[in-house]
Amino acid sequence: MKNILIITCSLSGCTDLIADEIGKVLSNAGHHVTIEISDDATQAQIEAHDFILLGTYTYSMNTENEAFIPFELEDFLDILYKAHPEEKYFGIFGSCDATYKFFGEAVNLLQADVEKYGGNVMAEVLKIELEPDTPADRTAIEAFTNQYLKYIQ
Ligand SMILES: Cc1cc2nc3c(=O)[nH]c(=O)nc-3n(C[C@H](O)[C@H](O)[C@H](O)COP(=O)(O)O)c2cc1C
């Protein structure tokens, strides 16, 4: 059994719903799961977890300006990057909207950022179109979560 922390950064709740579904898959596999909003995560909580899944929404100007990592994640990332990220194993996911030019770009940016600061990040990311409400979404969530479990074995 592993202790797994899921951090969410969500404005309208879709990323939270994906986190809940990932949490169910992990719990069913016998792991202990804590889901926390990025702003509420404490230093002690971050330091205590080697296995962390990070979820984010993506907003962009949808013009020539590229998307960005949501500013709400800044405080969390400041703490994380001082908490030996090189000893931790990450998976990144998020809710996205295919009508925008930069589909789920914050997921990719966050993956690159955590890697830049030395974190071990699973290559596969999970991007769900808005809410996780279709059988295909559930299949994708299960596949991503099982891939993460293999990654941290
Ligand atoms: C102003 C605005 C800009 C957005 N830009 C993007 C974007 O560039 N790429 C994308 O995939 N989704 C974009 N979205 C869609 C959100 O990522 C999507 O609604 C997502 O479900 C929000 O997640 P949340 O419910 O966890 O906050 C944008 C939404 C808004 C309102």
Describe the structure.
Strands 1, 2, 3, 4, 5 and 6 form a 6-stranded parallel β-sheet that branches. The chain starts with a strand and ends with a helix. The model has no long low-confidence stretch (mean pLDDT 96). It has a single domain (3-151), classed as Flavodoxin domain (Rossmann fold). Helix 4 links the parallel strand 4 and strand 5. It has 5 helices and 6 strands. It is globular, with a radius of gyration of 14 Å. By secondary structure, it is an alpha/beta fold. 37% of the residues lie in helices and 22% in strands. It binds flavin mononucleotide.
List keywords for this structure.
binds flavin mononucleotide; Rossmann fold; 153 residues; single chain; alpha/beta; globular
What is the topological layout?
Layout: E1 3-9, H1 14-28, E2 32-37, H2 43-47, E3 51-57, H3 74-81, E4 89-96, H4 105-116, E5 120-121, E6 126-129, H5 135-151
Parallel strand pairs: 1-2, 1-3, 3-4, 4-5, 4-6
Helix pairs in contact: 1-5
Bound molecules: flavin mononucleotide (FMN).
> What does the average pLDDT come to?
96
Q: Give the helix level as a range of percent.
A: 25-40%
Structural class of the secondary elements? alpha/beta
| Bound chemical compounds | flavin mononucleotide
Distance between the termini: 10 Å
How would you summarize what this structure contains?
By secondary structure, the protein is an alpha/beta fold. It has five helices and six strands, in the order E-H-E-H-E-H-E-H-E-E-H. Helix 1 (14-28) packs across helix 5 (135-151).
